Structure prediction request, 286 residues.
Amino acid sequence: MTTLRFYKYHALGNDYLVLDPVDCPKVPSPIEIKKICHRHYGLGSDGILYGPSPAAGGAFGLRIFNPDGSEAEKSGNGLRIFARYLFDQKRVNDLPFKVHTAGGMVECLVAEDGKKIRVEMGKVSFLSKQIPVTGPAREVINEKIEIQGRTFYFCAATVGNPHCVIPVMQATPELATQYGPHIETHGFFPNRTNVQFLEVIDRNNIRIEIWERGAGYTYASGSSSSAAAAVARKLDLVGNDVTVHMPGGTIHIQIADDYAITMTGPTTPVGVYQMNAEVISQKVAL
Prediction:
């Protein structure tokens, strides 16, 4: 094979490459993923969505890879993009369907001819053993963390992947880029963590800045929106319907009483790319 075919989409500036097993039966290695996702040496993306593959119950199987080559359990934006890809390929229609990820099963619905995607993300948990966070079994709410000489108070959550949510008076890109890398790899989080700096605008609106595990500073994130909105609800700072504002745009989050999350947001197709296989064999410093 001299070329590989990728379908590129973005969800509020968070871009992914869909790699169908029909075009590439073997999952790329971590170093191959790093080369493909590289902004200068490859096609450039925030990750690779590898699927669909067969899954139990007639679901579409999906594996999600970060640009550093690591595998993610779940991605809200990735799921919306994958749902749009399935819709564009006429493998689904406007009826609900299920997608299986390493972070659990979700239900998706494509609306407005693919421009709006709803995903039932599952229930958010604040329990340390499920996230995971080190220490005794507990809900991780308003705990102290010291980073580069600064003290923050954080809440931890999982919606199938780990999150550290830090309420602040004003969420800025500088907070995410300065402290995010150190929080991601902090010893509190054995599997590393996604990081959100959370600013509450009012009872129906929040703003977040995101440092994404394995990807870095990110314009938007569906799972981060889900976790941050759930934390804001847990702290009684918002109601059950929340619009999450991010540099890339907005996502709507509905929070049930049991913290089950329904996420709704847009996707945009970018193009279909034929990448030369020489990209994989090149020797570059990554």
User: Anything to note?
Assistant: The two ends are 24 Å apart (CA to CA).
